[in-house]
Amino acid sequence: MGSPGIGKSTLLCLLAFYLIFKHKKNVLMYRRLTLFKQENCLLYLGYDGDKAVFFLKESCKVSEAEPIYQALRRQHGDANAWLLLDGFHHHQISEGLRTYNMLATSQQVKLKDHEITDAYLCLFPCWRKQDLFKLEEQVYHFDAVEMDNRYYYSGGSVLLFTLPTIDLIEQAIRVALHEVSDVARIISTQSTSATNDSQVDRLRHTFIEDVANLTHYTKSSH
User: Fold this and answer.
1) pLDDT < 70 stretches in the chain
2) Do 142 and 74 share a structural domain?
3) Which stretches are transmembrane (predicted)?
4) In this structure, are residues 156 and 207 in contact, taking their beta carbons and an 8 Å threshold?
């Protein structure tokens, strides 16, 4: 889990290819899309014998994804059929998809007592200022003043930081501000984000103290 716009979806895609080619798993990725005129999409990467196969369904409702997933579980077994969910809220996942293996989300995950022993939470932190600036220097070549202005509005969100113009970054932040009804959440000292559709986490990003310490990615106290 982690703040919006920091690359959780990209990391999940990399993990999918790692599972497929390193561990020979059959991976079903189901992504929840919320932008105007966008629908959930489904991607399968796996094997038919020794042959690598894939299929893509660009518009896929939950009612369509569930039977596909269940069929893959029956065909390959639970250990070899992995479901990766992207952008879903933990408390809103339908019953037919709850046996997922990985979930990328910006929302708080509340685990029940019996789930804690089998589940792992990992924070994907926001980008540090120096890392964003290195990215810009190597790829986008903005000058120092523009990079400072971009970081001022975007914080640690690489998605916002790399938008074509600063005006677009400001516009995205203004939209997020209008979606926050509980202002107290912005100055909250709690490390986790809201479980509703509030845009507060686009304004109050989550970082960790020491990027070299692996425990800081898994312990909420950091």
Assistant:
1) 34-37, 107-116, 180-204, 220-222
2) no
3) 6-21
4) yes
Distance CA 138, CA 203 (A): 27
Angstrom distance (rounded) from CA 13 to CA 120? 18
Tokens, residue 132: 């964003």
- The pLDDT tens digits for 119-154 are 788 888 888 899 999 998 888 888 899 999 999 988
* 153 and 182 assigned to the same domain: yes
What domain count does the chain have? Answer: 2
> Which pLDDT score, from 0 to 100, does residue 147 have?
92
Domain presence at residue 66? yes
Domain co-membership, 75 together with 159: no
Q: What is the pTM of this model?
A: 0.81
Domain membership flag for residue 215:
no
C-beta atoms surrounding 36 within 10 Å: 4
37: in domain: yes
pLDDT score at 202? 65
Residue span of the structural domain in which 35 resides: 8-110
At 195 the pLDDT is 41
Q: Are residues 106 and 139 in the same domain?
A: no
Do 21 and 87 belong together in one domain?
yes
Report the pLDDT value the prediction gives residue 191, as an integer from 0 to 100: 46
SS3 label, residue 105: coil
- Phi, psi at residue 43, to the nearest 5°? -130, 130
